[in-house]
Amino acid sequence: MASGAIDLHRHDSALGVWDIAQRRPHPALRRHVLQFWHGAGRVTYQRDRILPQARSYLLINLGPPQYLCLPGPPEVRIVFDDIWFSGLYEGPIECAAPYGSVLLGVAFGAAGAASLLPWSQAELANRTGPLRELAGPAATRLREQLLNTASVAQRLDLVEDWLLDTCLSGRSVHPLVHWTLGRIADSGGRVRTEDLARDAGCSRKHLSALLSRAVGLPPKSLARIHRFQHALGCLGGGAPDWAALAADCGYYDQSHLIRDFQQFSGLSPAAFLRSAQPDPGSVVVR
After folding, report:
1. Residues of the chain whose pLDDT is less than 70?
2. Closest CA to 286 of 19, 41, 11, 44
3. Which ranges carry the HTH araC/xylS-type domain (predicted)?
4. Exposed, middle or buried, 143 (CB in 10 Å: 0-12/13-18/19+)?
């Protein structure tokens, strides 16, 4: 079931050469799914660090093995060679693709996976791992179909149809969850949990528990992620006035900005600026 035109992009630089195909989802999925993409190519760096966003991912490896790198000591590298799910994260994820990459991905909105998939997002938050443990043979069959399909457009269709046919469960997410997520996103993470709770007519504890169950993270953590992403979007080519940037993005002071950069990227703001970015959602670390 084709859902629209595919946007094709080629990256060719000192970081490597790769092609990305992106497409908006079917209208029935647009409240839940932000984007489908298919990427293939090779990078020249050893690994990159994926920055946290208020979204989760279905990731299907259709090419050589890749690796999830867990910090040590000792460092652990987990082979990624099939189909994985990555929940919402409160920190960065390090990955390596030394042999090249062919990857199909689905990006879910903060509550999108909770609406589509029959698994507890609270248990999947801050975790990345094989989907077969949850989906069983259905995930294996989907990947086999994809491997036997050469066309990028048809591969995207297959995953979209799988979500529509197998995963679209109609599970109800509390309206207050959607309302809270919208308020946090619209404010760029500047809204406080106590203000959200007051406007919602409930306690902070109740609101935090509601979001933690539905999406895996409480409002405060989601607001910090949005604020960090907003700060990233405000960075220009040169070194900014960090104190002014902190104030503009709703940080209490510059030290709070630095703390969030260190937690969410593993780098100081100045070191982050010196690092190469293959795309807006990641940074090269070595």
Report:
1. 1-3, 168-171, 237
2. 44
3. 174-275
4. buried
Range of the structural domain that residue 251 is part of: 175-266
Assess whether the previous peptide bond of 73 is cis (omega < 30° from 0).
Answer: yes
User: Could you tell me if 232 and 147 lie in one domain?
Assistant: no
Taking the C-alpha atoms of residue 222 and residue 141, their distance in angstroms, rounded to an integer, is 34
Gyration radius of the chain over CA positions: 19
Say if 215 falls within a structural domain.
yes
Give the predicted TM-score (pTM) of the model: 0.93
Domain boundary among 135, 167, 199: 167
Total number of domains constituting the chain: 2
Look at residue 2 in the predicted model and tell me its pLDDT: 52
Instruction: Report the pLDDT value the prediction gives residue 168, as an integer from 0 to 100.
Output: 67
pLDDT value at position 196? 97
What is the C-alpha separation between 115 and 110, in angstroms, rounded? Answer: 10
- Considering the domain architecture, whether residues 190 and 213 belong to the same structural domain is answered as yes
Give the amino acid at 156.
L
Are 29 and 163 a contacting pair, CB within 8 Å? Answer: yes
Model pLDDT, residue 158:
95
Tell whether 186 and 211 lie within a shared domain.
Answer: yes
Instruction: Please check whether residue 120 lies inside any domain of the structure.
Output: yes
Q: What is the pLDDT of residue 170?
A: 58
Report DSSP letters for 145-190, one per residue: HHHT---HHHHHHHHHHHIIIII-------HHHHHHHHHHHHTTT-
On whether both 122 and 207 belong to a single domain, the answer is no
Which amino acid is it at 132?
R
**pLDDT recorded at residue 5:** 84
Separation of alpha carbons 61 and 64, rounded Å: 8
